[in-house]
Design goal:
heterodimer, A: alpha/beta, Rossmann fold, 5 helices, B: alpha+beta, four-stranded mixed β-sheet, 14 strands, globular, disordered C terminus
């Protein structure tokens, strides 16, 4: 029987995708080990054939700022067993949520754009919308915390 | 295809989010909508009323992968505006930081996004059995760029050392030989990558204009703006030549240069400046350089691969020749001023325009990124490709559309930072 792998999904919402880049840089050192342990079910930067089916752990980067993305996040939560918020925007909303703090005049200036593209009235961090199991803070994400959360997930799912 | 609608949501193997919609009626392409769907983060508004000293680190957060480019452009804009002249060593460190960025960022695009198209697989991971060496190459090349950026700038993403007026930290002498050795070790890998893209059959030829900075050492940080139509303009006059085009369905503006669509990026740079590449690079890729100037958009991949070699060669020289020493950071003069900074980011020309008050506070700012400038060109290339291939299946056309978009190496995070637009 082939060895069990951890089925993971990596998702990006409103942000600069810095943690995705940190992950691709961590792959430089870890790819041989990780490719044996991880099954990338959803990783848009790496492949076009992506699925939400059977995801054990969803790693989610970015703040949520539109109705389309709220729906997508809830769909991911429904399909995964554990959800990890990755990076500052997912954990705290900032800096992608900076519009929440604009003064009245600036808010008025951007209001027609929020309406045009179906943006939500405020920008959210993940735990305001769904249950978050683990958080990896940092702008970009803290590598050491990411490694320890990944290790924890591998243990929980009996992969390593 | 007499009549068809093609919709691709959340395009893969690109930076950020984009959708494509195509409408074909009576064998004619009626509509191509290349829409950047990355949600706006309103950086243009957010940078107002903040201290200018914090501007580079703030705008670095516009884009993870090319954050060093945003840092450098914001620093350049602030220094130009305040009349500050960087030291020779600062200039060298900034060039080196850009080289680390280019090597890592181009490698990400070429190996992870574009190479699967060359080998007709979905992901580079599928090459594990047939071309295992390429997977090693990918991670070794990215690591070399990453380590160079860490040495000079502290990190590849949101680099902490570069600041207005200099650097807060300098390369440790003992770490330099390791980085030089690693750069030398990936040089043959760069040559191998260049050969792959030089031999690629991918072709899409459409006459268009190219715009890039041009300087004697193929610097990504200096020079006037040149175009393939023969324009040569000073950086501070750029806004007289660039014109906004509102694309209602896209979260990013488009741009025209002298009233025409144009392309920026590695292909534009090679088309306009190949004679300024590092002499060692020129010597080793002389035969491949003959294809430039080229109107084949897929040669953007080849151009990026050649730029990786240039960055390796010049970085090795600079690291070998420079004795780095601690330098104080220049003080910021107090004055009311307005100015620009223009640099070449991995994907093309990046413009920053800032207005700073005597109190050191940013009064307003404006940013134009490469992907916004390429947006109209991408749309017109897709239109041409489909019109020329009406006899092909919908699946084939969809795949080709994705390949064209990928060849431009678009960056949606950058493109949707938001610019102030008045919709009429």
């Amino acid at each position: 029987m082939p060895k069990k792998k951890l089925n993971i999904g990596w998702f990006s919402f409103t942000c600069c995708e810095d943690s995705t880049i940190m992950l691709t840089e961590m792959l430089n050192d870890h790819y041989e080990e990780w490719f044996k342990l991880l099954n990338f079910k959803h990783f848009r930067i790496l492949q076009s054939k992506n699925t939400l089916k059977d995801i054990d752990v969803a790693f989610v980067e970015g703040a949520i700022t539109s109705k389309r993305r709220v729906k997508e996040l809830k769909e991911i939560r429904k399909n995964c067993k554990k959800l990890v918020a990755i990076g500052s925007c997912a954990v705290t909303g900032m800096p992608s949520a900076q519009r929440n703090n604009f003064d009245k005049k600036t808010k008025e200036e951007i209001s027609f754009l929020l309406a045009r593209f179906g943006h939500t009235e405020k920008a959210y961090n993940l735990k305001e919308l769904v249950k978050v199991d683990y958080e990896v803070p940092g702008c970009p994400m803290d590598e050491k915390i990411f490694l320890s959360v990944l290790q924890q997930c591998l243990k929980e799912f009996n992969v390593a | 295809m007499h009549k068809s609608d093609i919709t691709i949501k959340n395009l893969s193997k690109i930076e950020g989010h984009a959708d494509l919609e195509v409408k074909i009626r009576d064998n004619q392409v009626k509509e191509v909508k290349f829409a950047i769907t990355e949600n706006k983060r309103f950086y243009t508004q957010a940078l107002r009323n903040r201290p200018v000293i914090g501007l580079p680190q703030h705008v670095s957060r516009i884009c993870g992968t090319c954050s060093i480019a945003h840092l450098m452009c914001a620093i350049t804009a602030a220094e130009h505006t305040l009349g500050m002249i960087p030291s020779k060593q600062t200039k060298i460190l900034r060039e080196l930081a850009m080289y680390g960025l280019m090597i890592r960022d181009h490698a990400l695009h070429l190996y992870i996004f574009s190479l699967p198209d060359e080998y007709q697989v979905d992901s580079i991971l599928e090459l594990n059995k047939s071309h295992h060496d390429l997977i090693h190459d990918c991670f070794d090349m990215k690591a070399a760029g990453n380590h160079l950026a860490i040495l000079v700038a502290g990190r590849s993403v949101h680099a902490p050392y570069p600041t207005i007026g200099g650097f807060t930290h300098f390369p440790e002498k003992e770490n330099i030989p390791k980085v030089i050795k690693e750069l030398k070790s990936v040089r043959p890998i760069a040559l191998k990558l260049i050969k792959i893209f030089a031999e690629s059959k991918a072709t899409l030829i459409r006459k268009t204009s190219f715009v890039a900075l041009s300087s004697e050492q193929f610097s990504f940080l200096e020079g006037p703006i040149k175009s393939s139509e023969g324009y040569e303009i000073k950086q501070e006059h750029y806004f007289q030549h660039l014109h906004k085009v509102v694309i209602p369905y896209s979260e990013a503006l488009g741009y025209e240069f002298e009233g025409k669509e144009y392309a920026v990026g590695a292909l534009a740079r090679l088309n306009l400046n190949k004679e300024h590449l590092n002499p060692k690079t020129q010597k080793d890729v002389a035969s491949y350089l003959q294809v430039f100037p080229s109107f084949n958009m897929y040669h953007n991949n080849l151009a990026q691969a050649i730029e990786i070699l240039h960055c390796i060669d010049h970085a090795i020289e600079l690291l070998q020749e420079t004795l780095f020493k601690e330098e104080p950071i220049q003080e910021l003069p107090e004055k009311d001023a307005e100015g620009v900074g223009v640099i070449e980011a991995p994907r093309g020309t990046l413009y920053y325009h800032v207005k700073i008050g005597k109190d050191g506070i940013v009064k307003k700012g404006n940013i134009i990124v490469p992907t916004q400038q390429n947006q109209i060109n991408i749309r017109d290339d897709i239109r041409l490709m489909i019109q020329e291939n009406m006899d092909k299946s919908k699946e084939w056309i969809s795949l080709e559309c994705e390949k064209i978009i990928r060849a431009y190496d678009p960056c949606m995070s950058c493109a949707s930072h938001f610019l102030k637009v008045k919709w009429t």
